[in-house]
Amino acid sequence: MLTTKTEQLQYVYHSYEAEHDHLPTSAREAVECGVREGLVELPLIDPYDVLAAEMAKALREEYAVDERGLKYRVNHAVRVTKAGVQYTFWATMGFAPRAHMEKAFAQRREQVVGDCLQLRIDVDAYNNLNKGEAPIQLVLDFADDVAERMSPPYDEAA
């Protein structure tokens, strides 16, 4: 029995993937098939939720350039859970209280650490599953990468 929405969506994806010889596919293709086959229902949509998600995306994508020519993110989010409900509070750099910015930076750093940990585990698992091949190497020390990209001239593509 599938107990969560996440498990239901994973089932739909893996069913679609198996029917298509495990070839890479988009989540949309798998969802469309799942809806057609009655495995998943289209959600009822709250237009305020849609606009709030679009606003959050727009806020994440807003950048400015400082006097050194460095492009920085203008808006920063802090996630807070109250009574079991998660809220995200946004603030604009330059106006945000220091405590908000410290928490926002700490949360973003934790996201990076979590992503690096999961990447390390995924690479190790892949290498373990493919012992007959040369292992994929992974370097998680980003100090040189960051220093190189901070060197003038600042390259927006970097």
Would you give an account of this structure?
The structure is a single chain. By secondary structure, the chain is of the alpha+beta class. It has a domain of 43 residues. Helix content is 50%, strand content 14%. The longest helix has 32 residues.
Strands, helices and their partners?
Blueprint: H1 5-19, H2 27-36, H3 47-60, E1 63-65, E2 71-73, E3 75-82, E4 85-92, H4 98-129, H5 143-150
Antiparallel strand pairs: 1-2, 3-4
Helix pairs in contact: 1-2
Structural class: alpha+beta
Helix-residue proportion: 40-55%
Largest sheet strand order: 1-2
Number of helical elements: 5
| Average predicted confidence as pLDDT | 93
**Would you count the extended β strands for me?**
4
Give the overall shape.
Answer: extended
* β-sheet strand percentage: 5-15%
For the termini, the CA-CA separation is: 46 Å
Topology order in helix (H) and strand (E) letters:
HHHEEEEHH
Model regions low in confidence, pLDDT < 50 over at least 5 residues: none
Quick structural overview:
By secondary structure, this protein is α+β, with helices and mostly antiparallel strands.
Features:
158 residues, alpha+beta, two-stranded antiparallel ribbon, two-stranded antiparallel sheet, 5 helices, 4 strands, 50% helix, 14% strand, extended
